[in-house]
Design goal:
3-stranded antiparallel β-sheet; mainly alpha; Arc Repressor Mutant, subunit A
């Protein structure tokens, strides 16, 4: 028997994925048995059928690769055949005209529901006389055609998916309508159940494969097959496709038509592959296969009875598997419409080789076809927007200089290939004395605007063909200010005041320390003085803003407010005060006023020779309190009020400086201790620099290892394999040596090896016939040895 199956969609909507899955199962079954796949369009529902839906169904089946062997046949073109079948049934007394009005039917259903019965037609017009029919027609009633159903009948069939099924005829709802109402002796539009049976008989359909929602129609159709004397086909009712809630997938769930899946970027082989797995389990658990491979293994004994939930993640995964292995030329053809839709300008013919290079680069990363548009934007635009993460990368030390070196180095390579790109990176890394990872990450930012993206070298080569690498490097360099701008003003020396004259001119004793006089700290600026003054505490003044017309020359030192000198006692000569060393300070540009929040400075430890007490200065606005430092007891020195200090006018241009820590107050006039503090600060700064370099080195280590492994992958794998073999042989040899030196272990393992070898030869190297003959010969030999049988036996 030649297998003949059919797919019979109704053009009341676009091709639904459920109908398409049914078509897949029919196609697979037909190809598995070498049969025929017939396409029939059931368009008898004239009110909802549309030509555009019909075209969508045909296009969808072709797009999926489900070519039909016969058809398409349209039921609206076969009405005469259906009317002839209805007349045949009426002539046999198996069908009749029913004049029951809709109002009477509604009244009947209401009464049945009131009694708790299932609604059904009571067959009241099954046996009308000619006079009764004439009376109904005289009343203007129209008649439908009903097919008689014997309520005592049980209809059963063997379902290829669900096994034996049975249905009681009394549960079919009474005599069923097979044609719509019509005036007089006319026969109205045939209905679904009759048209399906007539077509299946006429087209010699052997197997009806459809969704389980048609099970209730099957007993009615079996009765019609028998009434029309046609051969009843075999039935297979496949499980429905369900949503995540376990309900039948419908339009309310969003995407349901094949054209929707096509627009979303799924390709036919992946979608067909996925639909095949919706309800069918391959015998070898294979998940990726072509239609032909599935057809060779398809059978209904592996079709599930339970509904199949639709899994978007699984569909995406399958689609990506097909895209990753697709020929680049074919994939480029599929991607061109999406690039054009995105507004990218290119010549699809002249630039085809360049487009295929882009496809080869992104193909292994695609999940759906529309993903290609955003992934390839960098190849079709002259500029890119730099992300925040990319901007941080460019701000790293040496990044811009390295990009300038790359731009200049492009001229040294007229023929640009992946090898020359690697060579240029190597040269720039060596010339600029920077890590290769820094150069590669910065290049990626320049080319793509981000630190993440497709393969850098391949992307660079593709961009270079259009000159986009130069354009983007130039744009990056022109948009960034140089790291060191010329014209920074010189560092100004700090104005100081001399120490107070010692009492009595006694140079051998430490002079008492006068109370520190300071003016209120200026509002915080870009930084603080970085050195502690090596002299007695003095008053400091805020820096005025430089004027535009003043030169950058070093300003004269302005007089500083000092503490009053103590009176010189009679008979004592006034000794000249020692000159304190002058330390340079870094002038900073004042920022917007804000309240100081720094912690109070730690007091510098006083020497044991100090004989005075430093009194705390009353707190002022925007300053932090100065802690009280107590030294050895000594007479207090009373000072006069501190006059308002004069301001040092620094006619210098704007100076930029990084913020520095707030200086500690030094309460000793010893220069050696000041130098020690400066040395400690320099050591801390040096340690900070070293720490930053160590952190940068470790951050570049993964990129360095990746690049190193990528460049020397084959030698590393080769050496590693050789070492693994050597180590493995040594381990095995050591184990065997240890076993051989153990009593009885060696012979036992030898015996086990011999037995296993014999069993392996017997089981896998001999055919079943040879094994049987060998067994008989051994049995005969044993019988002969025991004296029970002769050797000839």
């Amino acid at each position: 028997m030649s297998v003949r199956v059919r797919i019979a969609p109704s053009p009341t909507g676009n091709l639904h994925i459920g109908t398409a899955r049914t078509a897949v199962f029919n196609w697979l079954f037909a190809r598995h048995h070498g049969g025929q796949f017939v396409l029939r369009v059931e368009d008898t529902d004239l009110e909802r059928s549309r030509p555009e839906y019909t075209q969508n169904i045909l296009d969808g089946l072709r797009w999926l690769g489900l070519e039909w062997d016969e058809g398409p046949f349209f039921q609206t073109q076969r009405l005469d055949l259906y009317q002839q079948a209805i007349k045949t049934l009426m002539d046999k007394g198996l069908a009749y005209r029913c004049y029951t009005t809709p109002e009477e039917l509604e009244e009947l259903r209401s009464a049945q529901k009131a009694r708790g019965e299932a609604p059904r037609y009571d067959n009241r017009h099954r046996n009308l006389t000619a006079e009764q029919q004439a009376q109904f027609e005289a009343e203007g009633r129209t008649a439908v055609i009903r097919f008689k159903i014997d309520d005592d009948r049980q209809i059963s069939w063997h379902d290829l998916v669900r096994g034996e099924l049975a249905w009681q005829a009394k549960d079919l709802g009474g005599d069923m309508v097979i044609a719509r109402s019509a005036q007089g002796n006319n026969i109205g539009q045939p209905l679904y159940n009759l048209a399906v049976v007539v077509d299946d008989i006429d087209m010699a359909i052997t197997h009806v494969i459809r969704g389980e929602d048609h099970i209730s129609n099957t007993p009615k159709q079996i009765l019609l097959y028998e009434a029309l004397e046609g051969k009843v086909p075999e039935f297979a009712h496949t499980p429905l496709i369900l949503n995540q809630a376990g309900q039948k997938l419908s339009k309310r769930d969003g995407v349901t038509s094949i054209s929707d899946f096509r627009d979303m970027g799924f390709i036919p082989p992946a979608l067909v592959n996925y639909m095949t797995l919706l309800g069918w389990s391959p015998p070898d658990s294979q998940e990726v296969f072509t239609l032909e491979e599935a057809a060779a293994k398809f059978s209904f004994d592996r079709v599930n009875k339970a509904g199949a939930k639709f899994d978007w993640d699984k569909l995406d995964w399958l689609n990506s598997q097909y895209l990753h292995t697709m020929d680049w030329a074919k994939l480029t053809t599929l991607l061109i419409p999406y690039w054009q839709k995105a507004g990218y300008e290119f010549d699809p013919v002249a630039e085809r080789p360049w487009l295929e290079q882009i496809t080869a680069l992104i193909g292994p990363s695609l999940t759906r076809l529309p993903d290609a548009a955003p992934m390839t934007r960098i190849f079709f635009q002259s500029t890119v927007e730099i992300t925040a993460e990319g901007a941080e990368q460019i701000e790293q030390d040496g990044a811009l200089k390295a990009m300038q070196a790359v731009l200049e180095g492009l001229d040294r390579f007229p023929e640009f290939t992946p090898d020359t790109a690697q060579e240029l990176l190597k040269q720039v890394t060596k010339e600029q004395n920077v890590k290769k990872g820094l150069v590669m990450r910065s290049l990626r930012v320049a080319f793509t605007g981000d630190v993440h993206g497709p393969d850098l070298i391949q992307s660079w080569c593709i961009l270079h063909q259009k000159g986009l690498d130069r354009i983007r490097l130039q744009a990056l360099l022109s948009s960034q200010e140089p790291p060191n701008t010329p014209g920074n003003p010189p560092v100004e020396p700090m104005a100081t005041t001399p120490e107070p004259e010692p009492n009595g001119g006694d140079s051998g004793a430490d002079p008492p320390v006068a109370p520190m006089a300071t003016t209120p700290d200026p509002e915080p600026t870009g930084g603080d003085l970085w050195a502690d003054p090596p002299v007695a505490p003095m008053a400091t003044t805020p820096e005025p803003e430089p004027k535009a017309d003043e030169s950058a020359a070093a300003p004269p030192v302005a007089p500083m407010a000092t503490t009053p000198e103590p009176e010189v006692k009679a008979g004592e000569s006034a000794a000249a005060p020692p000159v304190a060393p002058i330390l340079p300070v870094l002038l900073v540009e004042p920022l917007a006023p804000q309240q100081a929040t720094t912690a109070p400075p730690k007091p510098f430890p006083l020497s044991a020779k100090s004989t005075s007490e430093v009194l705390p200065i009353p707190p002022v606005a925007a300053t932090t309190p100065i802690p009280k430092v107590v030294a050895n007891p000594a007479p207090k020195v009373v000072t006069a009020p501190i006059p308002e200090p004069e301001m040092v006018v620094a006619p210098t241009p704007e100076v930029l400086a990084a913020p520095e820590p707030e200086p500690e107050m030094v309460a000793t006039p010893e220069p050696e201790m000041v130098m020690t503090a400066l040395t400690n600060e320099a050591e801390v700064s040096s340690q900070t620099t070293i720490t930053q370099k160590i952190i940068q080195t470790f951050s570049d280590l993964p990129d360095y290892i990746t690049n190193f492994f990528g460049q020397y992958q084959k030698p590393i794998l080769g050496v590693g394999s050789i070492l693994a073999v050597i180590v493995g042989v040594r381990v095995i040899a050591s184990v065997l040596h240890a076993l051989n030196t153990t009593p009885l272990v060696g012979p036992i393992f030898t015996a086990i090896g011999l037995v296993y070898s014999g069993w392996f030869v017997y089981r896998y190297l001999l055919t079943s016939t040879s094994r049987q003959e060998l067994f008989q010969k051994v049995k005969s030999l044993l019988a002969h040895i025991s004296g029970q049988e002769s050797p000839s036996a």
